[in-house]
Each structure stands twice: as structure tokens, then as C-alpha cells.
Amino acid sequence: MNQQPTLGRIVHYRGKEGLHALRAAIVTADVRTLDPRGVEAGTVPPLDSEYHVHLWVFTPGEAGGFPEFNVPSGEPHEHQSGQELPPGTWGWPPRV
Q1: Which of 51, 5, 39, 3 is nearest to 25 (CA)?
Q2: d(C-alpha 2, C-alpha 51), whole Å
Q3: CA–CA dist 58, 24 (Å, integer)
Q4: What's the rounded mean pLDDT across residues 2-13?
Q5: Neighbours of 78 (CB within 10 A)
Q6: Nearest to 25 by CA among 62, 63, 52, 65
Q7: How many angstroms separate the CA atoms of 57 and 96, rounded?
Q8: Lowest mean pLDDT among 4-18, 31-45, 72-86
Q9: Which of 50, 67, 88, 89 has its CA 20 to 30 A from that of 17?
């Protein structure tokens, strides 16, 4: 992974529960934009590395989405159906 995630970027997120569905997500915090006061107060989780992010994950249906915190980047690996992210990770959308 050579490009760091930044605030507001759209990424793909593979769920860590259920069917591990692939969803669109937006980066809500990265290491440069994370508010240290929120971390100190315990209201915002810290990030483990420059490739971990907080996300808002978009979902179909009434709820519309949910937050995920301290999500690591996932290196896609070859699978029978093509490139796939490991569960509980984010990755860049493929170029089309």
C-alpha cells in the first residue's frame, strides 16, 4: 500500500461480521485529522498506524450506515472470484 488514506476519501470496507459484505465507506478520520482531545477524553478511539482509519460505512436500508473505528488497510489477495479484501479491512476501489 503506497497511498495513505485521507479525510473524506471513499474506500471499500469488507464487514467483519455476518456475510462480510463489501460496502462503500468514507474516511472520517486519519492520523493527520484525528482530534487528540477526543482521544484523551476517551470519546474517540486512537488509530494504531498511518494506515488505520475511522470510517462511516454506507449500507442499504433505513439505517443508512454505521461507524467503524481503527480499521486497518487490507491487502487484497487473489481469490477464485478475483481481488478480495480480508474481513474487517478497508481498501481502495478498483480503477475502472
Answers
A1: 5
A2: 10
A3: 6
A4: 92
A5: 8
A6: 65
A7: 22
A8: 72-86
A9: 50
